[in-house]
Design brief:
alpha/beta; eleven-stranded mixed beta sheet; four-stranded parallel beta sheet; 11 helices
């Protein structure tokens, strides 16, 4: 396994690996992905093996041009095309009816497929050079924290990946928003890198997906995004928590301008939710490496990107409460 800069030669080598059935980690604006050529079922199976991911959890197809949507999705509603024109390329995934060309292993046997067009230049160049969509979940062990730097991928997956393309730190830092678009409805399956409020300005009312036990898209399991260290969520970190030498602390904002210490991180000094989202996984990785007995994390406002941050925090804490 090699970690390489995103040069033209690296992109060509990575595309050749994908065409030959290999798996490659690459940067996107959200998190690092672990990709395989989408129409090669054997290669896609390697993703599940490397991540220890259950086969009932579907993957996202990444495309380079909006015209490629018609290659993988059938009966595309006009609302989906309108949303795609507005928000692609970007951190938005659309769940649509699939075409038979998409292997069942990609969609976990479902009749739908999740598709997005990333904004990151390296990701787009790789897809274009590969010449087909790339199936890719986040490049981490299943259920663990998503990677926002190449080093996070190397630490979690090591030599199970054929190549890691180092594109620097991810700009958005949190996974894509996932919408299921049908003829008469649009439903939020996972909050993410585009706020719900912004999406509703284009799509109108968006329903909130209700948990039925069936997994329709990535990130819907009750436990996910978890560090090895147990996570406890509090409304505000108090003095007793701050004085606990066995705790690592994740503050939302620096209310007094005095937060410091090797065991503490602040998502955004000013409470900016976009900055907080960009820092979230990176800081969680740093706190996890401290080897403390618990990570105490403050809540963030559940609006804009705060909805996505809280989704990840709650699922991280669920592992502590008894998830695998």
């Amino acid at each position: 396994m090699a970690i390489l800069p995103p040069t033209d030669e690296t992109i060509r080598r990575a595309a050749a690996l994908l065409k030959a059935g290999g798996i490659v980690s690459f940067p996107t604006e959200t998190v690092y992905g672990l990709g395989a050529a989408a129409f090669n079922a054997g290669a896609v199976a390697r993703i599940f093996e490397a991540k220890k991911r259950p086969f009932f959890d579907p993957l996202i197809l990444h495309i380079a041009e909006i015209t490629q949507l018609d290659d993988v999705a059938a009966g595309i509603p006009e609302a989906a095309r309108r949303i795609a024109r507005r928000f692609w390329p970007g951190p938005l995934t659309l769940v649509l009816r699939k075409k038979p060309v998409v292997p069942d292993i990609v969609t976990a046997g479902l009749g739908t497929v999740a598709v997005r067009m990333p904004r990151h230049e390296v990701a787009r160049r790789l897809i274009e050079t590969c010449g087909c969509p790339i199936a890719a979940p986040s490049a981490n062990r299943f259920g663990s924290m998503s990677p926002t730097e190449a080093a996070h991928v190397e630490y979690q997956l090591g030599n199970s990946v054929d190549m890691i393309i180092d594109g620097g730190r991810c700009e958005v830092g949190i996974e894509s928003t996932i919408l299921k678009v049908e003829e008469k409805s649009v439903t939020l399956l996972r909050p993410g890198g585009i706020p719900l409020e912004e999406l509703e300005s284009e799509a109108g009312h968006i329903g909130i997906g209700q948990s039925t036990g069936a997994v329709e898209a990535p990130g819907q399991l009750p436990y996910h995004y978890s560090p090895a260290t147990p996570v406890r969520i509090v409304e505000m970190i108090g003095e007793r928590d701050a004085d606990d030498s066995g705790a690592a602390l994740l503050y939302f904002r620096d209310r007094r301008g005095v937060i410091s210490g090797a065991n503490a991180r602040v998502l955004s000094a000013t409470g900016d939710l976009r900055e907080a989202a960009a820092n979230f996984f990176s800081m969680l990785h740093e706190l996890d490496r401290l080897g403390k007995s618990v990570i105490i994390a403050e809540t963030v406002p559940e609006r804009d990107l705060g909805l996505a941050i809280m989704d990840r925090l709650v699922k991280a804490s669920k592992k502590t409460e008894g998830g695998p």
